[in-house]
Amino acid sequence: MTTATFETLSQAQIDAARTAHPGAFGSSWATVKRWAPLVAAVIYVIVSLWYFEFGRLLDASERVLALLRNFVVWQDMDTWAYRQIYVGISQTLAMAFLGTLLGTLGSLVVGFMAAKNVMPFGFVRQIVRRFLDILRGIDQLVWGLVFVRAVGLGPLAGVLAIFVSDLGTLSKLYSEAIENIDRKQVEGIRSTGAGPLAVIRYGYIPQVLPVFISQSLYFLESNTRSATILGIVGAGGIGMIIIERFRASLYDQVAFVVLNVLVLIFAIDWLSKRVRLWAIGEQGER
């Protein structure tokens, strides 16, 4: 058996083979399609570097080094207002906890109203879902600005911003968890003649409660960070202390406050992991 080479084939045979098997032969169009995304990406990166003036980082290198030096060199620590700092951290934690708690309680109701296997009226369900889309579509920071304007400066604005934002997101997550439950358990409860509330209590909630707890604990951790940012726009807590220290160029105190916030977030993450494991019955895993 011999293998034909291009030297032994006529041009007509090559053209016939190219027509019959176009994928086996390279083409200029195929080459363009293969390299066009890479060329476009390179051009986009070059244009972005020029448009956003990343070269200014080199001009600001001395200021950056001075700023970093001020972060790590702590001076006059005995004059720092430690009580004010830790009161602000306590307010931030309370703000995140209360906002998450209110969002969780509200989502327990709204989530069931948005689940198609619980709410039989499609019109009501669609209204609830569009309402949740509005809540999720507006960033938590924007809600913070809105409530600062509405109720004034202080932690109440932060609590309301976290509550509204969590209500939109947690309700969607809860409704999806409700829609994915095992229907046999629900049907078994319903077959005993139980009413709608009893079916929800004994058929739905035992299946979705571990998921609800896990998601709410995750949001508590996330909201602790968010509450810090909300404080910067006037919602109270440690965020206001951070922005005040920044404006006064007390960068060493800013670094101290940020380290304390990080320790708080690590502690919340550790505690929430233990609670999640307890809720799903995996107490042996650590």
TrEMBL record:
Topology versus the membrane: Multi-pass membrane protein
PROSITE patterns attached to this UniProt entry: ABC_TM1 (PS50928)
Molecular function per GO: ABC-type phosphonate transporter activity
Record Pfam families: BPD_transp_1
Keywords on record: Membrane, Transmembrane, Transmembrane helix, Transport
Localization, UniProt: Cell membrane
CDD domains registered for this protein in UniProt: TM_PBP2
TM annotation in the entry: 35-52, 93-115, 141-164, 226-243, 250-268
Residues covered by the ABC transmembrane type-1 domain: 89-272
GO cellular component terms attached to this protein's record: plasma membrane
Family: Belongs to the binding-protein-dependent transport system permease family.
Official protein name in the record: Phosphonate ABC transporter, permease protein PhnE
